[in-house]
Design brief:
Radius of gyration: 20 Å
Number of domains: 2
Largest sheet: 8 strands, mixed
CATH superfamily of the largest domain: Alpha/Beta hydrolase fold, catalytic domain
Number of strands: 8
Distance between the termini: 42 Å
Order of helices and strands: EEHEHHEHEHHHHEHEHHE
Mean pLDDT: 91
Oligomer: single chain
Number of helices: 11
Strand order of the largest sheet: 1-3-2-4-5-6-7-8
Low-confidence stretches: 353-363
Structural class: alpha/beta
Length: about 375
């Protein structure tokens, strides 16, 4: 596979002289890593691309006083998203899948590992990138993948930061939900989502397919808000612009393979659950967080993330929960998130923030 990636640092780039007019492509610039910076590997969310890290990068590579933080941010386009070469989901896993199969999630996890190794080779020093990585971070699908990577024993996977992670819900009843009417209603709706995603994965591409995709993903209320309206808190000033940008991104990169991949990943995220005790075998330190406004049923990501945190009491790590914040913490609260990540990597308490308050069971609540 071929993908794009970016290495963001606090170092000012060298000035580039451009002579016009010219009718040839500019030279390919060979990648370099800052000599001493540690690397934060950013994994974007579903259907997104590496630029999702744009709001967070300046807060991670520089401290509030403007000094370099000593970290660089490495981000890339995931398969099935952005400008990666098209890939059909059946190249990764058979359709229909075997019961409980999560082929695309496993593939994305392995892709991240291969990407890091391949970049080291491209830089001429196998193992170089791995030796410099301080953390793998991401939200939504990116948070899901960060948690999946945190289960691996690779020496360079020391820290994982996951906010608003996918698959924190439970789509099948268990003993705790058997007599909980609200929980059973959520599970029934999640099961309906699994049925819908399964149906769409198998649909061939026809003339109305593109319009139907944008209607269901961007315009259909489920039940009171569209999916993009659930990505940000209601009073986030840039909410409508971010939603429009996301629509335009998908309109540019839409292909039949993209549509199938979207529904296959959605299906697998619904089926998988971090609330299953047998998958909570984390090897890395874990920083887990969510926003209070990201609690729309049936996923209820805030409630389920907090529930997962209680189940991980024996895991080496920490948690954070932000008040007046929705799903996309990296966009809505970039500065607070960056401060929390840097404090976690420094193994110290997060900095105080105006409006912060503590409540039982909450590590941090920022307004």
């Amino acid at each position: 596979m071929q993908t794009r990636y970016a290495i963001a640092t606090a170092t000012e780039p060298d000035a580039t002289t451009v002579s016009l007019p010219q009718r040839r492509l500019p030279p390919v610039i060979e990648p370099t890593l800052p000599e001493h910076d540690r690397i934060i590997l950013f994994i974007h969310g579903s259907d997104s691309r590496l630029e999702e890290a744009t709001s967070l990068i300046p807060k991670l590579v520089r401290l509030p006083d403007g000094r370099p933080s000593g970290f660089a941010v490495l981000s890339m386009d995931l398969p099935g998203s952005g400008y990666v070469n098209p890939i059909d989901h059946t190249e990764v896993g058979a359709w229909p899948p075997a019961a409980g199969s999560v082929s695309t999630l496993s593939f994305l996890e392995k892709f991240v590992l291969r990407f890091v190794a391949t970049l080291s080779t491209r830089l001429g020093q196998p193992g170089l990138v791995e030796s410099r990585i301080a953390a793998v971070v991401g939200g939504s699908l990116g948070g899901n993948l960060a948690l999946r990577l945190a289960r691996r024993r690779a020496p360079w996977l020391r820290n994982a930061v996951a906010w608003s992670p996918g698959s924190v819900w439970r789509a099948v009843p268990d003993a705790s939900s058997a007599f909980d009417r609200a929980a059973l209603e959520d599970i029934a709706k999640l099961q309906a989502g699994i049925t819908l995603a399964s149906f769409h994965v198998g649909l061939p591409e026809v003339v109305p397919s593109r319009d139907l995709f944008f209607y269901e993903v961007f315009d259909l209320a489920i039940p009171d808000k569209t999916q993009p309206e659930q990505w940000y808190r209601d009073d986030f000033p840039a909410k409508q612009q971010y939603i429009l940008n996301a629509r335009l991104d998908r309109r540019e990169t839409y292909t039949p393979q993209f549509r199938h991949w979207h529904w296959r990943v959605s299906l697998e995220e619904l089926v998988w659950s971090w609330q299953d005790a047998q998958v909570q075998d984390f090897q890395s330190r874990v920083l887990l967080g969510a926003g209070l406004a990201d609690d729309t049923p049936p996923a209820r990501i805030f409630t389920n993330t907090r529930k997962l945190a209680t189940e991980l009491a024996g895991t080496n790590g920490d948690t954070f929960f932000f008040d007046r914040t929705g799903h996309s913490i990296h966009a809505e609260r970039a500065e607070a998130l960056a401060h929390t990540i840097l404090a976690f990597l420094a193994e110290r308490a997060p900095p105080s923030v105006d409006g912060a308050r503590s409540e039982p069971g909450w590590e941090l609540l920022l307004s």
